[in-house]
Specification:
single chain; elongated; Rossmann fold; 621 residues; binds S-adenosylmethionine; 6-stranded mixed β-sheet
């Protein structure tokens, strides 16, 4: 599409991310030539509305939270691009949403009666439609950090409904159109017939305040100095860009929120409380249902990811000249049926793994980031492991729960008491697959684990059960004064050459042995990354007592695991993993701390990294 708009064209060549999947917004922005990626935010719209003076303040705050949440992903991506040096470093994140009313927020009707209540409330009156927008601009700083600023604004449009007869209202309601529209109508379709006049930006009522958005872009790209840069989340008060905006959230889909000045005064205490009860009940109910659906369908989503990954869909799209392919080309490349491929691609789009423009499919930033098989942060290895090993085990979960045993025999025809030393694990391809899985997790989480604590006073480290060495290399990279010995079973050390980085640091060395039986290499820091959860308390005590013997006072043990919440309420990844019924068990930070304490180690720090693994540092007394 030719770019007609000189302001929009300023975004050409920049990565623009839209944190909303509303089809109307997508259409409005696509029509003016904006190229963007869609990454719907998972931020739940559950901020307490009573804490906001106006509905629009609530909406803008939610918009900002959504934008900031999506920004996390992209900041990560920007850093990745920086590290590997092949992409521009200017990201624009756009998140917006909302709609509302003055006092009363009309959301999507839950049934026809609800739609009737909403529409009859609007009949013959003027109401306001608000949309809130939050724009996050990311800038590269010299020290490889990403700086950003948040700009937010709102648009208000007044809409007057004609006097609507019950017959007309019911005809409209029976058309089905109101049911997925906040406010209960769609102005761009049949709902247009209800409207007497519109004052303000019509597109704002459809879903996006394009005019004001372009004006804001104009200000953003005006000569430097017109915006205040902030490293923290701010609304640039006093800058040329407006700050305090109105709006509220009506879900990500269609806007059409309304404010009804002529509606009963909702500021009186009793009425306000009643209103809140109704809204909360509705929101709560909707949230529970959507959580339920997520749980019921979660396995399908996982299998879509596994299958697309196994069929190399993401690699195939990346390898095409333009990075885009039509379904039939993908089908040909992956040697699959047209019908099946089309459905798989559609499902991937719905999960945010792919994006589609017309008939062309392309990777999203998220899939480029994590799903290309040769990407530096590829999770392909772990995904394959989940598909080939964890999935069959979980197919027998019911028996696993009844018997309290792992289901290797049922799933693979062979029992497995010690995953690392039995015949099944010893098979070359199984071991390699396992190592690839460990490698991919270590690549993604290694940097955060390695930088979790200040280790500058230590000279040597030993990564026990270091597998491919990925974690050891991360520690060496993060601590220039540290030499790291990677220790693992002989057959693993033998295969670790497959994973040696091309710029391998010679401060990392490899030693073969059995950490339960053999002497451990001497070190100031012992790293146990994803080791202890594999073993019973009894075995953990054997290992820790060997480490304690090897340690001088002041030396330390760094344990990296998924830490369970102390009250076991979350996060659930560790609890889910525990269902594979290995000999070991998942533990909380304080449980690890107690285990270490019994071997003379005092907990110095616990770090929740917000990555796949957390870490605890314990020092020998
Ligand atoms: N630490 C690595 C990481 O975080 O990526 C790998 C963790 S993996 C779950 C467990 C590792 O412990 C495997 O590499 C396995 O070969 C190693 N291992 C298991 N039993 C061992 C033993 N008795 N002696 C040495 N290493 C062992």
């Amino acid at each position: 599409m030719v770019l007609m708009n000189p302001v929009i064209s300023k975004l050409t060549g920049k990565l623009v991310v839209l944190a909303s999947a509303s089809p109307r917004r997508l259409e409005i922005l696509t029509n003016v030539g904006l190229r963007f990626e869609v990454v719907p935010s998972w931020f739940k719209e559950t901020l307490d509305k009573r804490l906001f003076k106006t509905p629009h303040e609530y909406a803008v705050e939610t918009a900002k939270q959504k934008a900031l949440e999506v920004k996390q992903i992209y900041t990560f991506e920007c850093l990745w691009f920086l590290n590997f040096g092949y992409y521009l470093l200017y990201t624009v994140l756009v998140v917006f949403f909302s709609q509302t009313v003055d006092g009363l927020i009309l959301e999507k009707p839950v049934d026809k009666q609800d739609a009737y209540r909403m529409l009859s409330r609007l009949s013959g009156k003027e109401h306001s439609v608000f949309t809130g927008v939050a724009i996050i601009l990311c800038h590269e700083k010299e020290d490889e950090e990403i700086d950003y600023q948040v700009i937010d604004f709102y648009e208000e449009t007044k809409v007057k409904f004609a006097d609507l007869s019950d017959d007309l209202l019911w005809e409209y309601i029976n058309s089905g159109e109101p049911m997925d529209k906040a406010g209960g109508y769609g102005i761009q379709a049949l709902g247009g017939m209800l409207v007497e006049y519109v004052h303000g930006d019509f597109l704002n009522v459809v879903g996006f305040p394009l005019n004001q958005f372009c004006k804001k872009l104009g200000l953003i790209f005006s000569p430097p100095g017109s915006l205040t840069h902030n490293s923290a989340q701010t609304s640039p008060q006093g800058s040329p860009v407006d700050t305090v905006p109105p709006c509220s959230e009506n879900g990500e889909d269609e806007p059409q929120g309304t404010s009804d000045p002529a509606a009963p005064d909702l500021t009186s205490r009793g009425t306000m409380q009643m209103q809140n009860v109704r809204e909360n009940e509705t929101e709560d109910g909707k949230e529970k249902l959507s959580k339920m659906i997520e749980l019921m369908d979660g396995f399908k989503a996982s299998k879509v990811l596994f299958t697309a990954s196994k069929l190399h869909v993401f690699d195939v799209l990346r390898s095409s000249k333009t990075g885009e392919l039509q379904a039939e080309d993908v089908a040909q490349e992956i040697k699959a049926s047209m019908k099946g491929t089309e459905r798989l691609l559609e499902a991937c789009v719905s999960l945010g793994l792919l994006q589609r423009t017309g008939k062309e499919y392309a990777n999203t930033a998220m899939s480029r980031h994590f799903l290309l098989s040769d990407g530096p942060l590829s999770l392909q290895g772990y995904i394959q492991h989940c598909n080939e090993l964890v999935w069959p085990l979980f197919t027998h979960l019911e028996t696993a729960v009844r018997e309290g045993t792992n289901q290797h025999e049922k799933a693979f025809g062979k029992s497995s008491d010690n995953l690392f030393q039995d015949a099944y694990y010893s098979r070359h391809e199984v071991k390699l697959r396992f190592m690839k899985a460990m490698h991919s997790i270590a690549k993604v989480s290694g940097r955060d684990v390695a930088t979790a604590f200040d280790l500058s006073k230590y000279k040597t480290a030993c990564d026990l059960g270091g597998c491919t060495g990925a974690m050891a290399y991360e520690f060496a990279k993060a601590h220039p004064g540290l030499s790291v010995t990677m220790f693992d079973l002989p057959e693993v050390i033998e295969m670790s050459g497959h994973f040696r980085p091309h710029d391998a640091d010679d401060r990392v060395s490899f030693v073969a042995g059995d950490f339960f039986k053999d002497e451990l290499p001497k070190a100031d820091v012992y790293i146990l990354a994803r080791i202890l959860h594999d073993w019973s308390d009894e075995k953990v005590h054997i290992l820790l007592s060997k480490i304690a013997k090897a340690c001088n006072p002041g030396c330390c043990v760094l344990v990296s695991e998924i830490f369970l919440d102390e009250d076991r309420k979350g996060p659930s990844r560790g609890l889910l993993q525990a269902l594979s019924m290995t000999e070991g068990r998942q533990r909380s930070a304080s449980e690890y701390s107690l285990l270490l304490k019994s071997h003379g180690f005092t907990t110095a720090q616990v770090k929740h990294t917000h990555n796949l693994l957390d870490a605890i540092l314990c020092v020998a007394e």
